[in-house]
Specification:
With 449 residues, the chain is mostly helical. It has helices spanning 14-50, 55-72, 74-87, 90-108, 114-117, 120-148, 156-161, 166-184, 187-194, 196-200, 202-214, 220-227, 235-242, 244-274, 280-308, 310-331, 337-356, 358-365, 371-386, 389-399, 408-426; strands spanning 428-429, 442-443. It is 77% helix and 1% strand.
Length: 449
C-alpha cells in the first residue's frame, strides 16, 4: 500500500519554544493549585463543614470520595476535550480547560456550609468537583502537546517534562497559602471563613493563565495535520481501532506518577496528623520541601530522558519506588520532623522520575492526528483509578488498625504496574510525523545474533 508522506513540520524557534513551554507550565500550575487546594482542604475541612452529620470517620471518607468523583469523570472530559484538541487545535482547547477549572474552583469559595444550608452545599460541591474533573480530563494531554509539538524531535522529551513542573508548583503554592493562613488565622476563623480564601485566589490566577495561553500560537504539528487533511472525523474511535495496546501501556505507565501524588499529598496528610501525631504545619512544610526539590529534579529527569529515552527513565523511577516503599513507611513511624522530611524527599524523588518522563513516553507512542485524544484518555483513566487511592488506603488502614505497612500495599502495586508498562513502552517504537497514518507503536525487533 502506498501512502502520501506529509511534509515535515518546522519546529518553532528556541525562544518561542521556551515561551510556549512557560505558558503551558503556568496553565498546569493553575490546574494543580486548584486541585491541591481541594486536596489539602478535604483532609481537614470538608468533612466537618459539608458532611458533619456523618461523624469524623464518615466525613473523612466522604471527603476522599468527593476527591474521587472528580477523577471518575475525567475520562469523559478526556473524550470531549481530546476530540476538540484533535479537531479544533491544542491551543483553543486548552483555553477552555483552564477557564472551566478556574471558574469552578473560584465558585467553591462561595459555597454555603452544612450549618448554613444543610446538604445544599455538599450537592453543589460535588457538582463543582465534577466540573473540575471534566476540565482536568483535557488539560494534561494538551499541555504536554503544546510544549512538545513546538520543539524539535530531539528535544521533545525535555519539553514534555516542563508542564510536569506544574504539579509541584501548584502543590507549593497551595501548601504555602495554607501555611500562611494557619499562622495568621486562629483555627476557629480558619474553619469559619478562612478556608474560602485559597479557592477565591484561583480567579486572579486564571486571568494570568488565560493571558499567557492567548498570546501563543498553535503547534506546528497540528498545523501540518490540518494542512495535509489528516484530521479524523472521530479521533477517539480511530485511537481505539489502531493503538489499543499502546493505550493500555500508556495507562499503566501513568499509574505511579499520579497515584503517588494522591497517596502522599492527600492520604498521608490526614494519616500523619490523626495517627502519627504530626502537626498540620509540619506536614505542609515537608510537602513544600519535597515540591521545591521537584522544581530541580523534573527538568534534570527530562534532560536525561532526551539522552536515554523517556520509557527508561519511567522504568528506573518505578523500580526505585518499588524497592524503597516498605522501608520508607517503616521509618515514618518514628515521628520526628527530620524523618518526615526525609521520607517526603526520598518517597517523592523516585516517583518523580516516572512522572517527569511520562509525557515524553506517551508522546512517542501515538500518531499525531489523534494524539491529543490518546494522551488525554490514557492519563484520565489512570487518574480515575488513582483518585480513589486515599479512600481505599483509609479503608485498609481502618481494617488493619493502621499498621505501619498499610500504605505500602497500595504504593508497591502501582510501582510494579508502571515498571512493566515502561518496559513494554521501551520495546515499542513510533517515529512521530513520519507520514504513514497506519504506522503505530509496534514491538521493536530483536537484534540479529
Amino acid at each position: 500500500m502506498t501512502t502520501a508522506t506529509p511534509a515535515p513540520t518546522t519546529p518553532t524557534r528556541p525562544l518561542s519554544v521556551r515561551r510556549v513551554a512557560w505558558a503551558s507550565m503556568v496553565g498546569t500550575s493553575l490546574e494543580s493549585f486548584d486541585f491541591y487546594v481541594f486536596a489539602y482542604f478535604s483532609a481537614f475541612f470538608i468533612g466537618p463543614l459539608f458532611f458533619d452529620p456523618l461523624g469524623q470517620f464518615g466525613g473523612t471518607l466522604a471527603a476522599f470520595a468527593t476527591i474521587g468523583v472528580a477523577f471518575v469523570v475525567r475520562p469523559i472530559g478526556a473524550a470531549i476535550f481530546g476530540h476538540m484538541g484533535d479537531r479544533l487545535g491544542r491551543r483553543a482547547t486548552l483555553l477552555w480547560t483552564v477557564g472551566i477549572m478556574g471558574v469552578a474552583t473560584g465558585l467553591i469559595g462561595f459555597l454555603p456550609t452544612y450549618a448554613q444550608a444543610g446538604w445544599l452545599g455538599a450537592v453543589l460541591l460535588v457538582l463543582l468537583r465534577v466540573t473540575q474533573g471534566l476540565s482536568l480530563g483535557g488539560e494534561w494531554g494538551g499541555s504536554i502537546l503544546l510544549a512538545s509539538e513546538h520543539a524539535s524531535p530531539v528535544k521533545r522529551a525535555f519539553y514534555a517534562s516542563v508542564p510536569q513542573l506544574g504539579s509541584p508548583v501548584g502543590s507549593i503554592l497551595s501548601a504555602a497559602v495554607f501555611i500562611v493562613m494557619t499562622l495568621v488565622l486562629p483555627a476557629e476563623e480558619l474553619a469559619a471563613w478562612g478556608w474560602r480564601i485559597p479557592f477565591l485566589l484561583a480567579l486572579p490566577l486564571l486571568a494570568v493563565s488565560l493571558y499567557l495561553r492567548i498570546s501563543i500560537d498553535e503547534t506546528p504539528v497540528f498545523k501540518a495535520v490540518v494542512a495535509q487533511h489528516r484530521r479524523d472525523r472521530v479521533p477517539f474511535a480511530t485511537m481505539f481501532a489502531r493503538q489499543p495496546v499502546a493505550l493500555l501501556v500508556a495507562f499503566g505507565a501513568a499509574l505511579l506518577g499520579i497515584g503517588s501524588y494522591s497517596l502522599m499529598n492527600t492520604y498521608t496528610i490526614n494519616y500523619g496528623t490523626t495517627t502519627l501525631g504530626f502537626s498540620f504545619q509540619d506536614l505542609l512544610v515537608a510537602t513544600t520541601i519535597g515540591g521545591l526539590l521537584q522544581l530541580v529534579t523534573i527538568p534534570l529527569f527530562g534532560a536525561w530522558a532526551n539522552r536515554v529515552g523517556s520509557a527508561r527513565v519511567v522504568a528506573w523511577g518505578a523500580l526505585g519506588t518499588l524497592l524503597i516503599t516498605f522501608p520508607m513507611y517503616w521509618l515514618l513511624q518514628f515521628a520526628s520532623f527530620p524523618v518526615l522530611v526525609g521520607t517526603m524527599i526520598v518517597g517523592g524523588i523516585l516517583p518523580t522520575m516516572s512522572w517527569a518522563a511520562l509525557g515524553g513516553l506517551m508522546n512517542d507512542l501515538f500518531i499525531d492526528h489523534y494524539r491529543y485524544s490518546a494522551l488525554s484518555v490514557a492519563y484520565a483513566v489512570a487518574a480515575a483509578v488513582s483518585g480513589f487511592i486515599p479512600f481505599v488506603t483509609a479503608l485498609i488502614g481502618e481494617a488493619t488498625g493502621y499498621v505501619w505497612w498499610h500504605p505500602g500495599v497500595v504504593l508497591a502495586p502501582l510501582a510494579a504496574v508502571t515498571l512493566v508498562s515502561a518496559w513494554a513502552a521501551a520495546r515499542m517504537r513510533h517515529v512521530p510525523e513520519v507520514g504513514d497514518p497506519d504506522m503505530v507503536a509496534t514491538p521493536e525487533p530483536a537484534p540479529a545474533a
